[in-house]
Specification:
Layout (H helix, E strand, L loop, with lengths): L8 E2 L5 H11 L4 H6 L3 H22 L1 E4 L6 E6 L8 H7 L2 H29 L5 E8 L8 H15 L4 E5 L2 H9 L3 E7 L6 E7 L4
Parallel strand pairs: 4-5
Antiparallel strand pairs: 1-2, 2-3, 3-4, 5-7, 6-7
The structure holds coenzyme A.
């Protein structure tokens, strides 16, 4: 299939909930979320609310694409004008059910980690760029090319715009996948108070 955004489905409000449930399954073993919710059943119940918030943010301020209406894979992209996730936009795109279900304990715990990750983002990408905020593929479809379909379609557009692209990952096995698409590690860092590594990665603009 040709790498073209027209071959993907751009998500709108009604698809946020099922897409969030899918990303919750995809990120069930993610180190960052395991840190927040060590208990697997709690993680399973909370992750859809986190992704509901992140996808909603993307639908409002960026572009969110799925591989098909079956939502095998979903990617959330923030454009150059909105690549910084600001507190004001986070508050606007959140809703009471998300806050209520995640609980104040999580909200206050994640604040310092989120601030730290945002500061790394600002330091390494103080220029116009696209931000790959989230990407995930339903576990039953992983390893079958779905992430590649999502990524290559957007890279074709980003390359036409001659813009760089930034992301962070907390999962070492993702680093080589992103390197495969031309990203370079700009910093490997540990968040104070956590035991896991993070990788900030940048894909340079095309010439
Ligand atoms: C990471 C993830 C999105 C990858 O999705 P996927 O659909 O399984 O990936 P694909 O099958 O499309 O493979 C992506 C590309 O990486 C390549 N690849 C796979 N493993 C690789 C490796 N170890 N090293 C280098 N390249 C690799 C594939 O060949 C493919 O390249 P191609 O498009 O040129 O064919 C998916 O495993 C996932 O959802 N993981 C859990 C959530 C997560 O960690 N998300 C990313 C957060 S930063």
């Amino acid at each position: 299939m040709i790498a073209d955004l027209n071959n993907l489905v751009r998500l709108k409000e009604p698809q946020i909930k099922p897409a969030a449930e899918m990303l919750g399954r995809a990120f069930q073993d993610d180190p960052l979320f395991t840190h927040f919710f060590p208990d697997a059943s709690e993680r399973k119940s909370k992750l859809p609310y986190i992704f509901k918030f992140l996808i909603r943010y993307g639908v409002w301020y960026g572009e969110v694409y799925a591989t098909s209406p079956n939502l095998e894979g979903v990617a959330v992209w923030l454009p150059p004008e909105k690549a910084d996730m600001t507190l004001r936009r986070m508050i606007w795109s959140g809703d009471f059910s998300i806050l209520f279900n995640l609980g104040m304990k999580f909200i206050s715990r994640q604040r310092s980690i989120t601030d730290y990750i945002l500061s790394i983002h600002k330091r390494h990408a103080p220029f116009r760029h696209w931000f790959l905020q989230s990407i995930g593929v339903d576990p039953m479809f992983q390893g079958k090319g779905y992430a590649g379909t999502l990524l290559k379609a957007m890279f074709a557009r980003i390359d036409q715009e001659h813009l760089p692209c930034y992301l962070e990952t907390q999962n070492e096995k993702n680093v080589s996948i992103y390197q495969h698409y031309g990203f370079k590690v700009v910093e490997e860092f540990a968040i104070p108070g956590t035991e896991f590594s993070n990788w900030a990665m940048l894909r340079e603009k095309s010439s």
